[in-house]
Design brief:
Distance between the termini: 33 Å
Largest sheet: 8 strands, antiparallel
Radius of gyration: 18 Å
Low-confidence stretches: none
Number of helices: 7
Helix content: 25-40%
Order of helices and strands: HEEEEHHHHEEEEHH
Strand content: 25-35%
Number of strands: 8
Shape: globular
């Protein structure tokens, strides 16, 4: 995946944070190639992007202070901790949905990947976040202006991999297909 694609995602996220929540962020140009996100923030969300040729995901993470600041106005509408929890999940899910939709409709993204379908967004708190399988992606971040924390983004969009399960395939094909996730898969059996 090229840096230009992640740059477009960061710009789209920054624009939508301002449109939806009137919060300023600054996209950075520091990118890391990585195989999975290694975020440690209190909130994390993911939305999948796919078509007939490619699959991937956008994963964001934000600090608790950034989320509380971003949602300060809407949180005045809740009256119980349960409602507050649901409001955070719904708001972050809507942010992911809006950002991913705008990103998928960008001319440059359409030229590279054609039409990308979106999944339903998933939101987790730090203690409930899943283990992400290995994939070739990139991470970058926005600087959240109000508290100078990062809004971290991991983006991966890759062609589908095909696993050859024919008898002629060697045992190495499964380790090539799964990479370092093979050990994790086997240890879970």
């Amino acid at each position: 995946m090229e840096k230009e694609v992640l740059t477009k995602m960061l710009e789209t996220l920054s624009e939508n944070l301002e449109l939806m929540f009137q919060k300023k962020t600054t996209p950075t140009t520091e990118f890391n190639e990585c195989n999975r996100p290694d975020f440690n923030d209190e909130y994390m969300g993911m939305i999948s992007l796919a078509n007939q040729s490619n699959q991937g995901q956008m994963i964001i993470s934000m600090s608790k202070t950034a989320v509380e600041d971003m949602l300060a106005e809407v949180m005045q509408l809740v009256s119980t901790p349960e409602e507050a929890h649901e409001m955070v999940k719904a708001s972050l899910g809507e942010l992911l949905n809006t950002v991913s939709g705008a990103f998928a409709q960008n001319e440059e993204v359409l030229a590279k990947y054609e039409c990308l379908d979106l999944s339903t967004p998933m939101i987790w708190e730090k203690d409930d976040s899943p283990y992400f399988c290995r994939t070739e992606g990139m991470s970058g971040h926005l600087i959240y202006e109000n508290d100078k924390t990062n809004v971290n983004v991991f983006l991966a969009i890759n062609p589908y991999k095909v696993f050859d399960a024919t008898p002629a395939a060697t045992d190495d094909s499964s380790s090539d297909f799964l990479g370092d996730d093979l050990d994790d898969l086997l240890s879970g059996l």
